[in-house]
Amino acid sequence: MTQLTPQFGKVAVLLGGHSAEREVSLKSGRAVLNALQNAGVDAIAFDPKEQPLWQLKELAVERVFIALHGRGGEDGTIQGALEYMGLPYTGSNVLGSALAMDKIRCKHLFKSADLSTAPYAVVDSKRGFDATAIMSELKKVMVKPSHEGSSIGMAQANNADELSEALNAAFKFDSQVLVEQWISGREFTITVLGEDVQPVIEMTTPNGFYDYQAKYQSTTTQYHCPADLTQDDTKKLQDMALQAFDLVGASGWGRVDAMQDEHGNFYLLEVNTVPGMTEKSLVPMAAKANGASFEQLVVRILEQTL
């Protein structure tokens, strides 16, 4: 194909990596790579698990599209390495990536800024915990390892025994675990692209919550884009998402997850700085509802590195 976009030079799409989300990252990265190549960008695949990072310089790469999910790719580590190498990259900087990846620090920030988020407790594997006391305060909970994405290691608990079991399972992924009060209600996600907020998406699943299976394997998960919300509620949710995104220092592009309880109150869940970019992913869905093709979306994200 003719070179249509020489301003980018040679672009490496970082995919795979070492995290528990490697498989999803490989799918995201391949989709991004194909779209960039179709748009006439001189793009190559680069898997940091298979190749040492300094080879980016040997390959004369001029900028990087990060499609790595989870630890090592979404937590500021790769961002710091690329800064050191003087290579422009997509998405949030070191601080924004690190903060957004840390669910516990995110919750502390939301709370301190008076942004609506569910009550929670923090449990550290080194300090022990009183499951009965936590459950008497929070009633029903969702357990989340602090630094995993794609709902990995997450579980719900209805009593002290279930909480102990869920915490011990979550400790395999992280020494610090977030225990969040369970919210029954609707699940939403809001994409931020540059300074723009995209149409809100609502996810519905017969699973107990929007878990790994519902995200990547299920055929019964349904997506409503734009979500069936009043104009006021849509704006409220989009404003909250933008505030949360800015608060953690995220930039470029990303996704903010939220819920609405049966009384109509919205609660922030988390900020994702390198969301999935597979054919089933939510960011491309939101961009499409706003009139942008997958190809236009990835080129727009890459343009942020110029």
- Uncertain residue ranges: none
Question: What name is given to the CATH topology of the largest domain?
Answer: D-amino Acid Aminotransferase, Chain A, domain 1
Straight-line N-to-C gap: 22 Å
- Radius of gyration over C-alpha positions, nearest whole angstrom: 19 Å
The 3D shape can be described as globular
| The CATH H-level homologous superfamily of the largest domain | ATP-grasp fold, B domain
The number of distinct structural domains comes to 3
Structural class: alpha+beta
Second-tier CATH architecture of the largest domain: 2-Layer Sandwich
Number of strands: 13
Average pLDDT figure: 92
If helices are DSSP runs of H or I spanning 4 or more residues, what is the number of helices?
11
Give a quick account of the main beta sheet: strands, pairing sense, barrel closure: 6 strands, antiparallel
How much β-strand is present in the residues? 15-25%
Can you tell me the CATH class of the largest domain? Alpha Beta
Q: What is the H/E order?
A: EHEHEHHHEHEEHEEEEHEHEEHH
- As a percent range, the share of helical residues equals 25-40%
What does this entry look like structurally?
The chain has 306 residues and is α+β, with helices and mostly antiparallel strands. The chain folds into three domains: 6-90, 3-Layer(aba) Sandwich (Rossmann fold), CATH 3.40.50.20; 119-181, ATP-grasp fold, A domain (Dna Ligase, domain 1, 2-Layer Sandwich); 185-303, 2-Layer Sandwich (D-amino Acid Aminotransferase, Chain A, domain 1). 35% of the residues lie in helices and 22% in strands. It has eleven helices and 13 strands. The protein has helices at 22-38, 55-58, 77-85, 94-101, 103-112, 131-138, 160-170, 212-216, 231-247, 282-289, 294-303, and strands at residues 10-14, 42-46, 63-66, 120-124, 141-145, 155-157, 176-181, 185-193, 196-197, 201-204, 222-224, 253-261, 266-272. Strands 8, 9, 10, 11, 12 and 13 form a six-stranded antiparallel beta sheet that branches. The chain has a four-stranded antiparallel beta sheet with strand order 4-7-5-6, sandwiched between helices. Helix 6 (131-138) crosses helix 7 (160-170).
